[in-house]
Design goal:
alpha/beta, Rossmann fold, Alpha-Beta Plaits, 3 domains, seven-stranded parallel sheet, 33% helix
């Protein structure tokens, strides 16, 4: 179990908290409700998790903290952060699209912290899947989305079912949504760091002579080179056409949109994180709460209709003291959105290309429930397949499987050598994702 804040920071490889995080911790440790307004990528999740973890009762067998998020991706991200910390407390995430049997299994032994989307949380409350009387802390993460009118009935149900609630914490990267009265905020302390902006974000406009926006996109991506980034489209139909052009141009990418099965979205993110592909092609579903880091750029193939989404998209890069660029694609005769009138936009600057990605992703049919660790997998790949340490990239271990980045030139040898072999007496299947 992690014992103190310094251990948590060391485990997450963070040297120190930023001013927003320090102010949030002090506010949450005090009395009353708290609203945290800070740009995307400034560490709001850690800001509310640290004081929450410090206040958990280790002897309680009930849910103490409820974290409500607008998307399943954000639920999974927060769950992953808590697992990386290694709190010693049970944590579960439930969300739409997840098998009900998995929810039932997780909730047989209640977690200290439950994370979920409004619809799934309200459904379990109505079913009596857990008692809510001991929930003393409620977090509405990205409340500008979770309090939108589409979620209002579920949110009213949830809040009415929390009689023991002592503290509410709301977070957002924008200040464009009023907090409804049914939330019951009582003179909240508002920490507004939105004016600080994201100082290492540079917004650039790439103006192409091509009238065909898809050709202009290929031209810009060729100039950007092989760096990790997200290309945003407004509509699924446009995204499909973008993917056709990318495929025809031989540019590796992974899709990410609401029409995909959850399993496929997760695998696309895994391959993006481990460098199998360096470009994610996405709708605004990827603008919030996905677990990716160190993005060098985002590209607005379409500019969003609302400035709010422009802010969230841009927040995927220039995160946590890193620099990054948001590219706006412009073609002759094209018009830019009115909200850009007050935004500092620079002309496109040439980018130094980087090396082509060398990784492929392998699926391993064993995970946490089999007591298999990253070290077990790496050791097996080195000893039984003859790989060097540099041939193995990021390893992600899930509940019932794992994903391993392996040098492309070594994939066939690994599959031939290790498929149907054993890790910790467990026979495993290995295949390329």
């Amino acid at each position: 179990m992690i014992k103190n804040q310094q251990e948590i920071l060391e485990k997450l490889q963070i040297t120190s908290l930023n001013p927003m995080q320090e102010a949030a911790m002090e506010a949450i440790n005090g009395d009353g409700d708290v609203v945290i307004l800070s740009p995307t990528g400034t560490g709001k999740t850690l800001a509310f998790l640290l004081p929450i973890l410090a206040g958990l009762n280790k002897d309680s067998e009930e849910i103490q903290v409820l974290i409500i998020v607008p998307t399943r991706e954000l639920a999974l991200q927060i769950e992953l952060v808590l697992r990386d910390i290694g709190t010693g407390h049970k944590v579960n995430a439930i969300y739409g699209g997840r098998a009900g049997a998995k929810d039932k299994e997780d909730l047989q032994h209640l977690p200290s912290i439950l994370i979920g989307t409004p619809g799934r949380i309200a459904d379990h409350m109505n079913r009596g899947s857990f008692k809510s009387r001991n929930i003393n802390t409620l977090v509405l993460d990205e409340y500008d989305k979770s309090l939108e009118i589409g979620f209002e009935p579920e949110m009213k149900e949830i809040l009415a079912s929390l009689p023991g609630l002592g503290k509410k914490i709301l977070t957002s990267a924008t200040q464009q949504v009023n907090i409804p009265t049914f939330v019951g905020m009582t003179n909240p302390l508002i920490l507004n760091y939105l004016g600080d902006g994201v100082p290492k974000l540079r917004i650039e406009k790439f103006t192409s002579s091509e009238r065909n926006r898809f050709k202009a996109m290929i031209e810009l991506l060729a100039k950007i080179g092989d760096q990790p980034g997200i290309l945003f489209c407004n509509q699924k139909d446009t995204l499909d056409e973008v993917m056709q052009w990318l495929g025809g141009s031989g540019i590796p990418f992974g899709p990410f949109h609401g029409g995909m099965e959850q399993r496929d979205r997760e695998r696309s993110l895994i391959k993006f994180r481990n460098g199998t592909h360096r470009l994610l092609v996405a709708t605004d579903l990827a603008a919030r709460g996905i677990d990716v880091s160190a993005l060098k750029f985002i590209l607005h193939f379409d500019l969003p209709q609302r400035e709010q989404e422009f802010v969230h998209r841009n927040g995927r890069t220039a995160r946590m003291q890193n620099d990054g660029t948001a590219y706006i694609l412009a073609t002759p005769g094209g018009r830019l959105s009115q909200y850009l009138a007050n935004v500092e936009v620079h002309p496109f600057a040439e980018v130094t290309n980087t090396a082509h990605p060398k990784w492929s992703t392998l699926f391993v049919s064993a995970g946490r429930k089999d007591k298999v660790s990253k070290g077990d997998i790496a050791g097996t790949f080195i000893k039984k397949a003859g790989l060097a340490k540099d041939d193995i990239g990021i390893i992600e271990v899930k509940q019932d499987c794992a994903f391993v980045a392996v040098a492309q030139s070594k994939v066939k040898n690994v599959v031939d050598s290790l498929n149907n072999t054993h890790i910790k007496k467990r026979k495993i299947r290995i295949s390329e994702v």
